[in-house]
Amino acid sequence: MKKFSNILKLLTWNNQSFPIGSYSFSSGLEFAVESKIIQTGKELEYWLNDLLKYGSLHSDALILLEAWKLANKKENKKINNLNSFSISLNQSYEKYIENYEQGKSFIKITSDAWNHKFQSKNLTFPLAYASSSYQENIKLEDTLICYLHA
Questions:
Q1: How far does Cα 141 stand from its chain's mean position?
Q2: 149, 17 in Cβ contact below 8 A?
Q3: Taking the chain (150 residues) in consecutive chunks of 10 residues, what is each chunk's mean pLDDT?
């Protein structure tokens, strides 16, 4: 049975009004719509499918999975190394800013609200999310599903 408080935390973290700036970033989707690369629901489906299979959502999901597992093993040095690798995967400066700023905001809020501890204040968003989830004893599968849904 899932802990209701964990579900509420995940819903809170994934809410568009949770102040990490997620409403400000679209991973290029807005440009694709404005440029008429995406004009139909089917094209949007293809775009999202590609992000999940080949793009940043795929790599972010893998980073999140590994970060949660490293947190479980208390492997702080490896988490910092994984963060450096995560930074290197950003294809553009804009994507780096998106990942870094959301991570920084997420760390600030969860530190203040839930007293979460982080090995660095400069983690990318998937690492920060995984770290908070682990600290809340939220299962890895639930963490990943909610992260990707958001």
A1: 14
A2: no
A3: 73 82 66 91 90 84 97 93 94 87 94 94 96 95 90
Which DSSP state fits 22? G
| Dihedral sign for Cα atoms in the order 17, 128, 111, 69 | positive
Write out pLDDT tens, residues 24-61. Answer: 566 677 888 999 999 999 999 998 888 788 878 889 99
Cα 77 to chain centroid distance, Å, stands at 20
Cα distances (Å, whole numbers) of residue 32 to 26, 46, 54, 86, 98: 10, 12, 17, 24, 17
* Cα angle 125-26-100, degrees, rounded to a multiple of 5: 25
Maximum Cα–Cα distance across the chain:
46
CA distance 1 to 87: 36
Question: Which residue bears the tokens 């968003």?
Answer: 125
